[in-house]
Give the backbone structure.
Amino acid sequence: MHPLRPKATVYEAVAWIGTGLALVLAFPLHLFAALMFGLLVFELVQLAAPALRVTRIGDKRAKQVVVGGLAVLIVAVLGLTTWKVLALFHSESTSIPALLQNMAEALESLRARLPGWLVTLLPENAEDMGKSAVSALRERAAAMQAAGKGIAQLLAHVLIGLILGAVIALVAEAGPGQQRPLAAALVERARRLCAAFRAVVFAQVRISAVNTTLTCLYLFVVLPAMGTHLPLAKTMVAITFLAGMIPVVGNLISNSIIVVVSCSASFAIAGWSFLFLVIVHKLEYFLNARIVGGQIHAKTWELLLAMLVMEAAFGLAGLVAAPIYYAYLKKELSDRELV
């Protein structure tokens, strides 16, 4: 044992094991969305309370009333925002299936638009490969149109997470009180997880806002100035912001969609969109290293490796959780002087 490193107590060991199991079980139990939205509400209340000078309220009950009202307002705003986003994606003119259908049509007409010299360089089964990709996109669009039960379950979990986050924020204002050793160790793990969530998510929101702003300028200013108006531009902007919550990879997903849709306009526009993808992707690396990496003291390759492992283990939810879980794990290890 390092002479300056305090020895871990049995309560801390139990808290570490319990926290690790809870974080892992959130995926098979389909509670990850509830966890994330609960943390979001809690952190927003903690962020807004000092601005409203809640800490200066002397009366304990009055402070709880103010915090409760603030939590209800935040939950209402988040709920309304979620409903608006879902309404946008389910609108007949801006739905995800409509976007996938447009992408399928762009891929279908891609071969006809290729110059003759380029067509001769393609393998003989290129057309079959293209048809397979188009068929896959069409099947995915039909599957998304038929989906409903999963979305309803997700919304229920999100609502429960929002309410729990508000309740926990309200209880936190009542003061920690006297805690026994195991409870104190568990509360400390929760505090560190909240700190990791705050560092990663709020930093990633800033990065996503930059990417979304640049995408808006490209789709609604640059391309119209060139005489081109891409279909479903609002949907692509919304996807850019939401996908931007996933470091590095999310930017590739959203901009790849823009490139494919640009093929329906012309090869020149597709080329400009590809150049836009490359520039913004490089900017994403810089911002990620400076903002997210600076917040959690991690390099971009560390985050990418964590995302790769988590995605392989838990799918898309693991991809989203990877930076947060990694930030929490690295904080625990660094505080024990293990890394």
